[in-house]
Amino acid sequence: MFKTKILIIGPSESGKTVLANFLSDTVETIGGDYSPTQGVRILEFESQNHGSGDRDSSCEVELWDCGGDFKFESCWPALMKDSNGVVIVFNDDVPSHINEVETWHSTFVASQGLRENQCLLLVHHKPGSSVNASPPPLAPNLSKLQLIHSNLEEDPEDVRQEFRRFLGGVVKTMSENRDNLEMSIFT
Q1: How many CA atoms lie within 13 A of 3 on its CB side?
Q2: Would you say the C-alpha torsion 126, 148, 113, 6 has a positive or negative sign?
């Protein structure tokens, strides 16, 4: 069984902690008072994967819920170490969030050399906000990345299934990397 380290990153107040709690089944209810994450929270759980090649594969997940305040930037290299995937969460109702997505991508994804299938863009819609399912105006280099909309009030299980598909792609990449490393030892 693979153990994956997934970072949940993005601007402050975008919904990262709510999504992390939901995906890890940490809390029973969604919502509550806003409390910014200080640095990072690490949530561990087991998840079924979809799309990893093995029908019933599962993996152990370390979900790193990273604080979105740039005052923690000096900690980011330590957070990124050995990460296998990145989920960039943002709220497209907030113009500054859309502008920050490219910064988060270049810092956490491009700098590590992660593949496209190891990054998920997640447009999080807070309770009571309007859901615009059209793609947000992102930089051209981000257009190849998988993008999903989340609304935990209306379609929570769709979000969970999309996350499991994303995990499946990450695990598949990890497996391919391991196989390539093993083959390089023999040649």
Answers
A1: 4
A2: positive
- Digit-coded pLDDT (tens) for 31-49: 667 788 998 999 999 988 7
- Contacts for 8 with CB less than 8 Å, ≥ 6 apart: 16, 19, 20, 63, 64, 65, 66, 87, 89
Residues 110 and 139: beta-carbon distance below 8 Å: no
Give the model confidence (pLDDT) of 81-105 as tens digits.
999 999 999 998 888 998 899 999 9
Phi, psi angle pair for 152, to nearest 5°: -70, -15
Which whole-number Å values give the CA distances from 139 to 80, 81, 94, 95, in the listed order? 23, 26, 16, 13
* 124 Cβ contact partners less than 8 Å away, ≥ 6 residues apart: 14, 15, 18, 19, 89, 90, 91, 150
pTM: 0.90
pLDDT digits (tens, 9 = 90+) for 145-161: 999 999 888 889 999 99
Residue 66 tokens, joined: 């990273």
Contact 24, 45 (CB under 8 A): yes
Please give the span between the terminal C-alpha atoms of the chain, in angstroms, as a whole number. 26
pLDDT above 70 (res 56)? no
- For residues 86 and 107, the answer to whether their CB atoms sit within 8 Å is no
* In the chain, alpha helices (H): 16-23, 76-80, 95-108, 156-186
Alpha carbon 98 to its chain centroid, in Å, reads 16
